[in-house]
Structures are given as structure tokens and as C-alpha cells.
Design goal:
Blueprint (H helix, E strand, L loop, with lengths): L2 H13 L7 H41 L6 H14 L6 E9 L5 E7 L5 E4 L5 E4 H14 L17 H11 L6 E9 L5 E7 L5 E6 L2 E6 H6 L9 H11 L10 E10 L2 E8 L4 E6 L5 E6 L24
Antiparallel strand pairs: 1-2, 2-3, 3-4, 5-6, 6-7, 7-8, 9-10, 10-11, 11-12
Length: about 325
């Protein structure tokens, strides 16, 4: 019986006080006594439950490990970085836990360049946050329903594009960069990035032992690879900018391709809006050295492929 119902029973008993105590009232009083005992028992039980919960909380607090000392974590991170031969001026770090084999995991942010997720294994491993971000983006594009990939979460590791733009600047990419992504690794382990530029040809860049290397997307396409951030229009605009002041300076370039290179320079074919075309030979800095109209260029490489200009007529004797 509830406390509310118990009170109602008491009210009825008081209203009958002028009457002789009847067997029914005796039963009611017996019931009210039992109900008081039941309520007291319930209160005692609630007290025991509350005490048990408080005891469990104390046990959990005693069992939970203390938060790691930030200074200790930073020292451990710097030791792992040194062992992995990674240069990083640590600006932030955190302990991520341990594997089943009790190998410690950390994340660190650096003053310049990418941050890392570190595995304090033997030998230690340092995984670039930029690479992790790009892999997560690729996985999300392929399957939006796939479980989230591991990425870096420290605040200093969130502006991935700023890090990649710094890479492009170090590699000598002078355009306005609007897109970048990791495209893989070389056989030597160097990470390859694609750089997209506003309005002009893009690049692939990679850092070698002696410094950064860059490859224009026109050359990447000739090597049967792809540049997802560069359009044919941007490549045509790039070649047109090289032609200023040359014999082909008035060409409204519509299509271009890199044909190849030799000791004399690089050879590009261009098709013009007027229907004519030519092959341009440039030096390494893209300065035009010579223009060969398609009508006269059938013996240069594989000849013109972007136009249908007939060959020059042979003078009749």
C-alpha cells in the first residue's frame, strides 16, 4: 500500500473514533501498522541502494587511473619523435591510450608542418596528420556510410590546407592554390601531393632528399596519370600565357598537350580557335624557342594530333 493510501485509511479511522472499536477497524489498524513497517522497510532498502551506489562510485573513482601529467606526456612524445627521426617543435600533445600489447599511442601538434599520431613501438611510428586527413576524405567519398577513419583531433592539427599550401610554396608553386590532396607514395616512401591552381595548370609535388620536386599536370597526363584539380581550359590558358610575344602570340588556344622533350627543350602542341595549330618548343622556364606550324611539323615527334591542317604543298618544278 502506498503512503497516500495509508493516509486515507488513517482519515477513515479518525472519523469513526466515536464508535465502538469494531473488528473491521481493528483490521484497518493492523493494516496501517503493516503499511508503516512496509514504508520503513522501503526506506531502509532505498538507503541501502543509495549507499551501494555511492560505494560503487567510490570504487570506480579509486580504480580510474589518474589523468596523465601534460609535462610527462610531452617528454614522452619528444622521445618518440627523436627515435623516429621526426623533426617537430611540440606545441600540443595528448596521450591516446595503449594497445592490447601495452604500446602507447599519442597525438602531437608541431609549430610548423604537420602533426602526427605516434606509436611508441619498436621501432616507433609517426603517421602524418595530413596523410590521415586525406585518406579519411577519400574513404568518405568512396563510401559515405563507412565508419569514420582515424584522424588527428588536436586544435593545432585541424588546418590541413594551410600545411599543404606551405608545401606548395616550398616546392616553388607560384599559383594561387585552391585544392590539394595526397595522391600516394613513391617507391622510396615520399608522399606525392596534387596541387590545384586557380585558372592555370596544376602540379604534383613530392619531397625528395635534396628538396621538393614538382611536375606540371601537362606532364603528368603525358605519363598516363591524372590531375583531378586541373581542367583542359586551365591548361590552355597556361600555354597561351607562354606564347606572348612569339610568332603564335595571337592564337586563342583551345587544346594543348605535351608531346615530350629532348636535349633541345620541351615540345607542346596547341590548337587555336581559328582552326590552325602549331608545335611550340620551349626551354625549362617555358620561354618559347621556336614555333612550328602544323602544316610544317609532320616530322616533329608524332606530328600534330589536335588539328587537321593539311601538310604544306610541295612546289611544282
Amino acid at each position: 500500500m502506498t503512503i497516500k493510501r495509508f493516509s486515507r485509511v488513517l482519515g477513515v479511522a479518525t472519523g469513526l473514533a466515536i464508535m465502538t472499536l469494531s473488528p473491521s477497524l481493528a483490521v484497518a489498524k493492523q493494516q496501517s501498522g503493516s503499511e508503516r513497517e512496509q514504508v520503513q522497510g522501503e526506506r531502509a532498502q532505498a538507503g541501502r541502494v543509495a549507499g551501494s551506489r555511492a560505494s560503487q562510485r567510490r570504487q570506480r573513482q579509486q580504480a580510474a587511473p589518474a589523468a596523465p601529467d601534460p609535462a610527462v606526456v610531452k617528454a614522452e612524445v619528444e622521445a618518440v619523435l627523436a627515435s623516429a627521426s621526426v623533426t617537430c617543435q611540440v606545441t600540443d600533445s595528448k596521450f591516446m591510450g595503449s594497445t592490447a600489447e601495452q604500446v602507447k599511442l599519442y597525438e602531437t601538434a608541431c609549430a610548423t608542418g604537420p602533426g602526427y599520431i605516434l606509436v611508441a613501438s619498436t621501432p616507433p611510428q609517426a603517421v602524418d596528420c595530413v596523410v590521415l586527413h586525406s585518406q579519411a576524405e577519400t574513404a568518405r567519398t568512396r563510401d559515405p556510410a563507412a565508419p569514420p577513419s582515424q584522424v588527428c583531433t588536436l586544435p593545432g592539427n585541424q588546418d590541413v590546407m594551410a600545411v599543404m599550401k606551405a608545401y606548395a610554396a616550398e616546392a616553388g608553386v607560384a599559383c594561387t592554390v585552391d585544392e590539394m590532396a595526397v595522391r600516394g607514395q613513391t617507391s622510396s616512401g615520399a608522399v606525392v601531393y596534387e596541387v590545384g591552381c586557380v585558372g592555370v595548370d596544376g602540379f604534383r609535388i613530392q619531397k625528395a632528399a635534396e628538396g621538393w620536386e614538382k611536375t606540371e599536370c601537362l606532364q603528368v597526363l603525358q605519363q598516363n596519370a591524372t590531375c583531378a584539380f586541373t581542367t583542359p581550359v586551365e591548361q590552355a590558358a597556361t600555354v597561351k600565357s607562354w606564347l606572348a610575344g612569339s610568332a603564335a602570340g595571337d592564337c586563342d588556344v583551345q587544346q594543348v598537350r605535351l608531346m615530350g622533350q629532348n636535349a633541345n627543350g620541351r615540345f607542346y602542341e596547341a590548337a587555336c580557335a581559328a582552326g590552325n595549330g602549331f608545335i611550340a618548343r620551349t626551354n625549362a622556364e617555358h620561354a618559347v624557342q621556336q614555333i612550328y606550324p602544323c602544316a610544317e611539323a609532320e616530322k616533329i615527334g608524332d606530328g600534330c594530333k589536335l588539328t587537321t591542317t593539311p601538310p604544306a604543298e610541295t612546289p611544282q618544278a
